[in-house]
Design brief:
By secondary structure, this protein is mainly alpha-helical. The protein is built from ten helices and four strands, in the order H-H-H-H-H-H-E-E-H-H-E-E-H-H. The strands form two sheets. It has a two-stranded antiparallel sheet. A two-stranded antiparallel sheet has the order 2-3. The radius of gyration is 21 Å and the shape is elongated.
């Protein structure tokens, strides 16, 4: 995903952790026309950790767990059967994996190597820009990003960047509660002005 929450692969995997829809819903993430929680950095990261733990508990081998994360347990199980009895790590089943998966685990090793030994190769990590301090508020009413933006004077681009899980700039809080991420100083302002926000040009957002 290159850390892009809205990334979608050619196969249909989406979000930071590139979940296929069936895997995501099996892990409790919501996907519909308005919400795609594969794009939620917090929920999807928790789901990815749970999924990797499940895979490790299945294979008791991190190389197989990581391969299964990429191509699915079914393909890893098929490769294990083809490799024969007593074969139980990534390199044993390498010839029987899809080409993409053959490169996936080595790329994982390479990323870990360069993070650990970058000084030995005269590579200096770039300093990350300090992220904005954020907080969340539970929304239990239907509200559009434009209403929030116009009443609270927050750029639409900023609201979208903080809340990539909402596919159409709309929070369907009237269906179930959802978390809205805002700059921390704006959270209390949202709570204090929620009625004004929800009623702002409300007729335009009832469809």
């Amino acid at each position: 995903s290159a850390l892009v929450p809205t990334a979608v692969s050619r196969a249909g995997a989406g979000g930071l952790w590139q979940f296929m829809p069936a895997t995501a819903t099996g892990l409790g993430l919501e996907i519909n026309s308005l919400v795609d929680q594969r794009r939620d950095p917090y929920l999807s990261s928790e789901a990815a950790a749970r999924y990797l733990k499940q895979l490790f508990n299945t294979y008791t081998d991190w190389s197989l767990a990581i391969a299964a994360y990429n191509c699915g347990p079914g393909n890893v199980n098929k490769a294990l059967r083809r490799a024969g009895e007593g074969k139980h790590d990534f390199w044993d089943i390498y010839p029987f994996l899809l080409p993409e998966t053959r490169g996936y685990f080595p790329a994982f090793i390479a990323a870990n190597y360069i993070m650990t030994y970058h000084k030995d190769h005269n590579i200096s990590p770039a300093l990350a820009r300090r992220p904005i301090v954020v907080d969340t508020v539970h929304v239990t009413r239907r509200v559009h990003f434009e209403q929030i933006s116009e009443v609270m004077d927050i750029p639409m681009a900023e609201i979208r960047a903080l809340n990539p899980q909402f596919r159409k700039d709309l929070i369907p809080g009237d269906i179930k509660p959802y978390s809205l991420v805002l700059p921390s100083l704006q959270v209390y302002a949202y709570i204090a002005n929620e009625d004004s926000i929800v009623n702002h040009n409300a007729a335009n957002y009832r469809r």
